[in-house]
């Protein structure tokens, strides 16, 4: 399934799945209809809210039971051609009629850096101050998450070197801690695209202390989406082509098989910190970031750019870049 969070304007945020015809099926209402019509359940709404809540993190907190119920809802609505739920609410939406948001707002976002050796090699050639090798982990600012087609806001008063980093990320479907790579697959609920936006000039200052966080956690610096593809559709996450484009021109192109350590190894390695269902883990970026190129200034992002991140079997995450000053009427905070 391709799972997403959407706003249909007349109702609060909902979760849906993309049907074969491209329409979006409301999973919570669809499951309520299934419970009423097939299971003959009287309390179909409370049961639907418990099993397929209209919140993505809540769905993943139900582990396979929730994902199986969501799949049942999708299959039932499509098979029956249903258009309305038990109370006449709309069940199927055209993408043009809704606003697709970031698919999930996790409790924790585990951030991996240095997993692709090619990224480390690029950094060394450019004279970057520190080696970029596993295991580098830190937490992303979840309040910086934005969804597809939402704007990356360029804060000119903070940075002049705005960079991109295409990454594969995964969503966990159960809580756990202290397990090995052989058990890691049991925790994977699905996969999603992440663009790790980075202010390189801020990063260089932070790296003098050997750490970095602010440079990647500024508001809107965490595009995530466009949807979550469930793990059953991607049996091998280390066999996916990856590409990032700016204004249609390829900047990053690689393959997830080039990771230094595998996805299961990453999950297992961080497990002593403890996971909650719905947490997100990134797996590191690939070669081709602007900062490590021969001419970084010409490639750094600028207002008016459009960034497209594409990963095989998942889709395309698209985000425009807008000026903070223009967005706020020419007013900007004092430079830090």
Descriptors:
single chain; about 325 residues; alpha+beta; SH3 type barrels; Fumarylacetoacetate hydrolase, domain 2; 2 domains; twelve-stranded mixed sheet; five-stranded mixed sheet; globular
Describe this structure in words.
The protein is an alpha+beta fold and 336 residues long. The protein folds into 2 domains: 2-100, SH3 type barrels (Roll); 104-327, Fumarylacetoacetase-like, C-terminal domain (Fumarylacetoacetate hydrolase, domain 2, Alpha-Beta Complex), CATH 3.90.850.10. It has helices at 27-37, 44-51, 56-61, 63-80, 117-126, 181-184, 200-206, 214-217, 263-270, 296-299, 324-327, and strands spanning 2-7, 14-18, 24-26, 92-93, 99-101, 109-113, 136-139, 145-146, 152-154, 162-163, 166-172, 188-195, 198-199, 222-230, 241-246, 249-255, 280-285, 306-311, 315-323. The strands form 3 sheets. Strands 1, 2, 3, 4, 5, 6, 7, 8, 11, 12, 14 and 17 form a 12-stranded mixed beta sheet that branches. A 5-stranded mixed beta sheet has the order 9-19-18-15-16. The protein has a two-stranded antiparallel ribbon with strand order 10-13. Helix 1 (27-37) crosses helix 2 and helix 1 packs across helix 4. The longest helix is centred in the first third of the chain and has 18 residues, at 63-80. The radius of gyration is 21 Å and the shape is globular. It starts with a strand and ends in a 9-residue tail after the last helix. The mean pLDDT is 92.
């Amino acid at each position: 399934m391709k799972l997403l969070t959407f706003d249909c304007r007349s109702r609060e945020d909902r979760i849906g799945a993309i049907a074969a015809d491209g329409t979006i099926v409301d999973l919570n209402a669809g499951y309520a209809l299934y419970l009423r019509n097939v299971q003959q359940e009287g309390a179909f709404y409370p049961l639907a809210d418990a099993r397929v809540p209209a919140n993505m993190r809540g769905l993943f907190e139900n582990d396979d039971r929730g994902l199986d119920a969501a799949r049942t809802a999708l299959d039932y609505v499509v098979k029956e051609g249903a258009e309305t739920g038990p109370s006449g609410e709309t069940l199927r939406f055209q993408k043009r009629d809704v606003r697709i948001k970031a698919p999930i707002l996790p409790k924790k976002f585990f951030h991996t850096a240095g997993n692709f050796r090619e990224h480390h090699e690029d950094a060394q050639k450019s004279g970057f101050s520190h080696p970029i090798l596993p295991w580098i982990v830190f937490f992303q600012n979840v309040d910086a998450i934005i969804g597809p087609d939402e704007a990356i806001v360029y804060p000119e008063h903070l940075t002049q070197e705005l960079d991109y980093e295409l990454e594969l990320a995964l969503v966990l479907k159960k809580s756990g801690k202290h397990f090995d790579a052989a058990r890691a697959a049991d925790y994977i609920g699905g996969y999603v695209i992440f663009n790790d936006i980075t202010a390189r000039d801020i990063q260089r200052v932070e790296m003098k202390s050997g750490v970095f966080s602010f440079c990647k956690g500024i508001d809107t610096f965490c595009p995530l989406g466009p949807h979550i593809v469930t793990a059953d559709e991607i049996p091998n996450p280390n066999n996916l082509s990856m590409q990032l484009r700016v204004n249609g021109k390829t900047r990053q192109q690689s393959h997830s098989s080039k990771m230094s350590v595998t996805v299961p190894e990453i999950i297992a390695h961080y497990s002593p910190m403890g996971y909650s269902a719905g947490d997100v883990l990134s797996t590191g970026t690939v070669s081709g970031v602007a900062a490590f190129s021969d001419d970084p200034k010409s490639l750094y992002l600028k207002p008016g750019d459009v960034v497209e991140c594409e990963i095989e079997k998942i889709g395309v995450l698209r985000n425009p870049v807008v000026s903070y000053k223009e967005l706020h009427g020419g007013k900007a905070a004092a430079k830090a």
